[in-house]
Amino acid sequence: MLQNTPRTARMRWISILCAWTIVGLLFAAQQIVVLKVQGSHTNWVVVGALELVYWYLWAACTPLVIVLARRLPLMGPKFAVHIVIHTVTSLMMAPLTSAIEYFLSLGILRFVFHITGADVLHFLSPFGEGVVFMSFTGMLTYWLVVGLYQAVHFYQVALERQTIAAQLETQLSHAELENLKSQLHPHFLFNSLHTIGVLMQEDVDAAGHLLVSLGDLLRMALEQRENEITLRTELAFVGKYLEIEQTRFHDRLKVHMDVPPDLLDVYVPSLALQPLVENAIKHGISVDSDAGRLEIAAKLQDGRVWLCVRDDGPGPAPRLRFGVGLSNVQSRLKQLYGKASSLELTGGGGRGCEAIITIPLRNLH
Length: 365
Description:
Radius of gyration: 38 Å
Strand order of the largest sheet: 2-4-5-7-6
Order of helices and strands: HHHHHEHEEHEEHEE
Structural class: alpha+beta
Largest sheet: 5 strands, mixed
Shape: rod-shaped
Number of domains: 2
C-alpha cells in the first residue's frame, strides 16, 4: 500500500478531481449531442458547467465513500452486513447530493449566467423530478466508487503477495544454494585429506607441503561468499587444487588450459570446475596408469559460456552416475540458471571423458 504522506494525499485528490472532470465532460458532450440531434439549441458552456457541478459534488464525496469501502469491505464474514450498510448509505447520500446539486445549479444559472424564469426549465427539470432522476444516478455512482476501490485494493494486495512470494522464492533459492555449498566444502575437504593421508606413507615432506597448500585452498573456499565469481577466480582456485594433485601424481599429471583471455571476466558458479577436475582425476587418471592428461577449456558458443574438463582415462561408462560433487554442481546450476544451463558427461572419442557445463553469458555480477 502507498504511504499516506502529504504528497500522496495531494496526488490522490488531484487524481479524483481529474477523473470526475473527465466524467462530467463526457456527460456534457453526450447531452449536447442529444440536444443537437433533437434540433434544440443550447449553450454548451451552461450545460458543461451544470454537469461539472454534479460530478464535482461526487468528487468531494469520493474520499468519504472510499473510507467506508475500506472499513466495510465487500468480503469476509460480515459481507451481508456491509452490503446493507452500503445500500442504506447510498440511499441517503444520493438524494442529498442531488438536492444540493439542484440548488447549486439554480444559483449558477441565476447569478452567473443570469438565466431566470421559464428559461431555467430549459436546463433544469422541476425539483422533485430532477432529484428523483439524479438519485438513481447517484446510487450507481456510489456503488461504482465502492467497486473501483475494491478492485484497486484487491490488485494492490495481489501485487504485494506476488512481491512477497518472489522475495521468499529468492531467499529459498539462496538458502538452497548455501546448503549445497556447505555440502560441497566438507566433501572436497575429506577427499583432499584422503590424498594427503595416502601421500604421508610415501613422502612426508611432500605431505607437509600439501597441508600448507590445502590450508591456502580452504581459505580461498571460505572467502568465496558469492554464488557466482569470475572465471579467473575459479581457475585460480582450481590451480591451487591441482597443485595438491600434481604433488601426488608427480610428473604423470599434465594440465593443459585452453581459456581465451576475454572470457576470464565472465561470471561462473563458484566451485563449479573443481568437482569436475576432481571427478576426472579420481575416475579417469588415478585408475589408469597410462592416463595423465587433463584439459580445461572454455569458449563462447551461441551466446552461452561452454566449460569443459577432459581427461584421457577410461571411458565414462563406469561413472555416468553423478556423485556428491557433480550432483551438487548440477543442482546449483539449476538453482542459478534453471533450464538455461546443463551439465553433461560424454565420452572422449572412445577413451577419456568430458564433463561439460553450459551457462548463460554474464559479464556483470
